[in-house]
Amino acid sequence: MDRFKFTTIAHGTHRLCSPISDGKLRDIMDVLGLSADSRVLDIACGKGEMLIRMAELYGVSGVAVDFSPAFLEEARKQASTRGVADRIEWIEGDAKEFEGQVEGFDVVSCLGARPFGAYRDTLTRMGTWAKTGGVMVVGEGYWQKPPDARYLEFLGAKAEEYSDHAGTEAVGLSLGLTPIYSTTSSQDEFDHYEGMYLAAMERYLRVNPDDPDARAMGERIRGWRDAWLRWGRETLGFGVYVFMK
Ligand SMILES: C[S@@+](CC[C@H](N)C(=O)[O-])C[C@H]1O[C@@H](n2cnc3c(N)ncnc32)[C@H](O)[C@@H]1O
pTM here? Predict the structure, then answer.
């Protein structure tokens, strides 16, 4: 199966591919000190929704990087329809290869991805692009409670790959960053995100039963749904952490 196929279909109806409502996204943007002069770098931008919103609401300009061709195509379409295409440069490629201007950005964001390995490495790398006095916005998973061993086995993860909410913020502190804001996704936000994900895939499978990948995708989405309901919903949280460099 094409590496992007499952995620492209499952995120087919999301604009922001993170469990964050429009209202919460607005709250987060409000604390970033954005203005028309701000330069923003969004790493693993998905469909570019956050940077597009920043450009619409605050007039910022910036650069967005993602390796998904389908997500970037949607991002370009949205930016053009919403009149901000001239303010955003879209870079299709692996964020690991991205050579941005060192200390060139007022805001550096990365929501829902760890393109540089562990969370700490992601923060460290983001910090190279942020200006001193600029901010970094990172969206990360955290444990709401210690994970069940069966959930870890399902995810193929180790408990120490995530921390709790306070511990996730503390990683920024340990890197010399100043935390200025944090928030977590509510159950409603997470249910909405997961529900959109499940619904988009189940609809696709109903309409495309002859897709050669239908069986594999069906098994994957239903396994994910079961694990989410059984363990994930009460175990895995999503936090957004804002640090000043
Ligand atoms: C859960 S989505 C979040 C997208 C976006 N930040 C948002 O909140 O809407 C994760 C994104 O990370 C991208 N991604 C993951 N690893 C990457 C890498 N090494 N280089 C570029 N993009 C990456 C995926 O293509 C996907 O668009």
Answer: 0.97
Domain that holds residue 66: 5-191+223-244
Q: How many domains does the structure of the chain reveal?
A: 1
CA distance 29 to 119: 21
The tokens for 105 are 């950005």
Q: How confident is the model at residue 1 (pLDDT cuts 50, 70, 90)?
A: confident
Euclidean distance between CA atoms 234 and 187, whole angstroms:
9
Question: Ligand 1 atom closest to Cα of 15?
Answer: 9
Report pLDDT digits (tens) over 69-91: 999 999 999 999 999 999 999 99
Residue 153 confidence (pLDDT) above 90: yes
Look up the CATH number of the domain holding residue 101: 3.40.50.150
- Interval between CA 47 and ligand 1 midpoint (Å): 9
Q: Whose CA is nearest to atom 12 of ligand 1?
A: 44
Task: Confirm whether 218 is domain-assigned.
Answer: no
Q: Please name the residue whose Cα sits nearest to atom 4 of ligand 1.
A: 46
